[in-house]
Design brief:
By secondary structure, this protein is of the alpha/beta class. Helices cover about 35% and strands about 25% of the residues. The chain has helices at about 15-20, 20-40, 120-140, 155-165, 180-190, 200-205, 250-255, 260-270, 270-275, 290-295, 315-335; strands at about 10, 45-50, 55-65, 75-80, 100-105, 115-120, 145-150, 170-175, 195-200, 210-215, 235, 255-260, 285-290, 305-310, 335-340. The longest helix has 20 residues, at about 120-140.
């Protein structure tokens, strides 16, 4: 007779947000990059299943994040839908996020499902945490002027993440929807007690900035290489499909390029693939993955004047180490609901 499977822990968005601090997530994501570079993890490419009318897609991101005695290996998959038309301020569409889904975590020894977590909150925090790891490794130590191109959820988490690793004293924000930028600036001033200025043009926001995060839903460039100051560091986050990009070709050519996963960059990133298709760069333009940089296998910033670029694709091991951290804290605190599935 087979034994019943252990109960499954369910964790909601508010519960994940209360348990997953930015500082802890940055350290967890850094460990994930190290394990990936050492070959301890399994990281396939994600898959996207589009609806026939291309209104949205179902994305699946499986993987296994290598672990340690303190944090064991984590096996799982993130399943998300991406529906760009879900604008909460649009009366003709539901007030739903564009990205929704769950992270499913399985026991790496026996294969049973152990937890189901909200994916929206994990994605928002771990994406910014990955940018923080890149910024800590690549940006100048004194970088303090931050430009955010985009004013949504990722702008909010990236502001928190940049403040965790650099002495940010001035924030500039630009958005294709000015009222969104104004709302973001108001919330950011209250939350962080920092000067946050809204700029009508992206070029003006970027001029003189030492840290730039592109966190838009744009498919055409919002950041031009001609605007970048010597020594700037860029986290390019928003575009993650072969035909969409936030950076123009000059921005990529000017920059010392790093990424989270080489395979993902070469096959998924329009920010890289489009300049490559134009003949402006080759695969050798990539200096390395963040994990390789952490292990000393790839060189970092070579001078104060170099422009560095982290092209973030967002990979499953980032979700899995974040989920594992949340699960450990939830069980210790008695947070969440356990259900038996059979």
């Amino acid at each position: 007779m087979s034994a019943s499977a252990p109960p499954v822990l369910l964790l909601s968005k508010p519960q994940v947000e209360s348990l997953l601090s930015m500082d802890e997530c940055i350290e967890a994501v850094e460990r994930a990059f190290l394990h990936l570079a050492r070959g301890d993890s399994v990281q396939p490419l994600r898959a996207a299943t589009w609806l026939p009318d291309r209104r949205g897609l179902l994305g699946t991101m499986p993987g296994m994040a290598g672990g340690s005695d303190e944090a064991p290996s984590t096996l799982g998959i993130k399943v998300v839908t991406v529906f760009p038309g879900n604008h909460p301020d649009d009366d003709d569409t539901p007030a739903l996020p564009s990205h929704q889904g769950v992270v499913l975590v399985f026991d790496a020894r026996f294969g049973n499902l152990t937890a189901i977590l909200d994916a929206e909150s994990i994605t928002a925090i771990r994406t910014a945490a990955a940018s923080a790891v890149a910024t800590r490794l690549l940006a100048r130590e004194d970088a303090s002027v931050l430009a955010l191109l985009g004013s949504g959820v990722q702008a909010e988490t990236h502001l928190e993440a940049m403040r965790a690793v650099r002495p940010v004293r001035e924030v500039r924000v630009w958005s294709r929807t000015p009222e969104h930028a104004q709302g973001f600036a108001r919330r950011a001033r209250e939350a962080h007690d920092l000067p946050v200025a809204v700029f009508p043009f992206a070029e003006d926001a970027v001029h003189g900035a030492e840290l730039i995060c592109t966190v838009t839903g744009a498919s055409q460039p919002v950041l031009q290489g001609a605007w970048l100051s010597p020594g700037a560091h860029v986290n390019a986050v928003g575009a993650c499909t072969p035909h969409a990009r936030e950076l123009d070709t000059e921005a990529v050519v000017r920059s010392r390029l790093y990424t989270d996963r080489r395979e993902s960059l070469f096959l998924e990133a329009g920010d890289f693939r489009i300049p490559k298709g134009e003949g402006a760069v080759t695969d050798e333009h990539l200096v390395g993955e963040l994990g390789e940089l952490l292990l000393g296998r790839s060189p970092g910033r070579g001078s104060e004047a170099q422009v560095t670029l982290f092209k973030s694709l967002g990979i499953a091991v980032e979700d899995l180490v974040s989920a594992e951290l949340v699960i450990r804290k939830a069980r210790a605190a008695g947070v969440g609901r356990e259900v038996s599935l059979g």
